[in-house]
């Protein structure tokens, strides 16, 4: 599964001359972010407990790039507002020194989380995801990335493909909206192509209307 990158949160609270800093990497509730996501209170609790048990912490990267670690997180806790993190930049690393200077000058001040979705609820009418359980993998210092929308769309499409496949395997029938959304979001169908596929494979116009045919069709597309 791909790691989802959260929207940058511009909320770094403190920065010392030795490269120590803290800030909110994510906040709970409120209005959906630009990707239509809301993170529920407690979403990180299991992941933080697992890190504590293992004696590990989420990684600290520059711009979500695992090839560019720039320090370490020394604390990560949930409070009433969100996920508060405290970190130490490795001032012996060139990129970390650059990040420090950029943070100090205020040229960048964003934190963004990288995680796997483990629990969520979907409001289909408004296309809002409430994320209830997250496996926190890393927290990055970021500027606003140009590719974040594509990353989010790819992850959501991947999950919808999985959900649709499992639903068909269980012998359940996809709704017209689920089928159209799947085809447009995951396979790049145009509106007319998706509507035609719905007519053929869900409404029985020219093809048998059953879950087995739907699954075969989906597997053919995936292949």
UniProtKB/TrEMBL annotation:
Domain Prohead serine protease intervals: 13-158
Domain of life: Bacteria
Pfam families on file: Peptidase_S78 (PF04586)
GO biological process, one term: proteolysis
Residues that span the membrane, as ranges: none
Database matches in InterPro entries: Peptidase_S78_dom, Prohead_protease
Keyword field: Hydrolase, Protease, Viral release from host cell
One GO MF term: peptidase activity
Name of the featured protein: HK97 family phage prohead protease
Source organism: Paracoccus alkanivorans
Record lineage: Bacteria, Pseudomonadati, Pseudomonadota, Alphaproteobacteria, Rhodobacterales
């Amino acid at each position: 599964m791909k790691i989802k990158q959260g929207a940058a949160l511009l909320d770094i609270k403190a920065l010392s001359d030795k490269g120590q800093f803290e800030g909110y990497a994510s906040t709970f509730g409120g209005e959906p972010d630009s990707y239509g996501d809301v993170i529920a209170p407690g979403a990180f609790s299991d992941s933080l407990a697992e890190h504590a048990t293992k004696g590990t912490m989420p990684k600290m990267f520059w711009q979500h790039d695992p090839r560019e670690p720039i320090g370490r997180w020394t604390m990560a806790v949930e409070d009433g507002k969100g996920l508060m993190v405290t970190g130490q930049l490795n001032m012996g690393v060139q990129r970390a020194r650059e990040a420090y200077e950029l943070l100090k000058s205020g040229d960048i001040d964003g934190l963004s989380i990288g995680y796997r979705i483990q629990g969520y609820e979907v409001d289909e009418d408004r296309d809002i995801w409430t994320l209830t359980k997250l496996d926190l993998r890393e927290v990055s210092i970021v500027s606003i990335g140009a590719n974040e929308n594509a990353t989010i769309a790819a992850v959501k499409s991947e999950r919808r493909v999985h959900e649709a496949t499992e639903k068909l395997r269980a012998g359940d029938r996809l709704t017209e909206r689920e089928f159209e959304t799947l085809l447009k979001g995951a396979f790049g169908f145009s509106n007319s192509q998706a509507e035609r596929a719905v007519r053929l494979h869900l409404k029985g116009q020219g093809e048998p209307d059953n879950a087995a045919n739907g699954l075969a069709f989906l597997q053919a597309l995936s292949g």
